[in-house]
Amino acid sequence: MPGRLIRAEGQATTGDVAADEAYAYLGATYELFWEVFQRHSIDGAGLPLIGTVHYGQNYENAFWNGEQMVFGDGDGEIFNRFTIAIDIVGHELAHGVIEHETSLAYKGQSGALNESLADVFGTLVKQYHAKHSVEQADWLIGVGLFTDEVKATALRSMKAPGSAYDDPALGKDPQPGHMRDYVDTTEDNGGVHINSGIPNRAFYLAATAIGGYAWEKSGRIWYEALCDEGLWDTADFSQFAALTVDVAERLYGVGVEQQSVRQAWVDVGVIA
Ligand SMILES: [Zn+2]
To answer: Where is the Peptidase M4 C-terminal domain (predicted)?
Structure first.
C-alpha cells in the first residue's frame, strides 16, 4: 500500500480518528486471540498488524488483503468510515485467521460459514473488549457503520438475522435465520453474506444457552472447530455443526455445552 506511517506500536494518539480507531481495534483483535485463544496474531506466529486508512476516495468497504487491513472512509451518505465498528475490524482480521487455518471455499455454504466465522470472532472481539456477558452483548455487527440517513440499527444481527435494516434505498436485510428460508442465489458468491445468518444465529443460540462470557466456552468451541483438521474446505453447515458438537464433547464432555451446541443447530434447522 502507498502511504506514510502515522502511528507505530506504542505511539500516542494522532488525532486522526480513523487511524486511532484502526490502532485500537487491531489491538483489541490481537488481545482476544492472544489472551483467550493463546494465538499470537493472525498467523499464530506474530504477524505485525498493519492497517491502511483513508484508502481510495469515499471507498465503501474494509478488507484483509492477505497481508494487512485496508479501510475506506465511506461515502458519508450511506456508509460512515469503516474503522467505526470494532466488530467489523475483528471480522476482517478474522478472515486472515480463517485463511491460515482452512481454505473454506468462498461460495455457497462453505463461503457462508467463512463469513459467519468472521462475524463470530468479530463479535467476540467486541464482547471481550467491552467485557460483556451474553446477556449484555447486543449481538449486532457493524453498529454505526450506516449513517443517520439510513434506516438501520446495524449491518447484521446474529440474534435476529434479517432485522438489521429496512431502508427505502437499501432495501431490507436479506439474512435468513433458519434453513427453511435459505436463499438459493448466484449473487454474492451464492449468498455468502446472506445465508451466514443461519450459522450466526446458531452461535448466538449456543452462546446464550451456555451463558456467561461467549469467548470462554462457545467461542472456544468455535475456535477449536475452526482449527480442527476435520474442517474441510468444502464443509457445509451440517458438517460444521457436527464438528462443533464433537469439539464441545471433547472439551467439556457430554453436558450442557454439548447439548446447547447441538440444540442450537437443531433450532436453525441445520441438523435434525
Ligand atoms: Zn467477510
So the answer is: 103-270
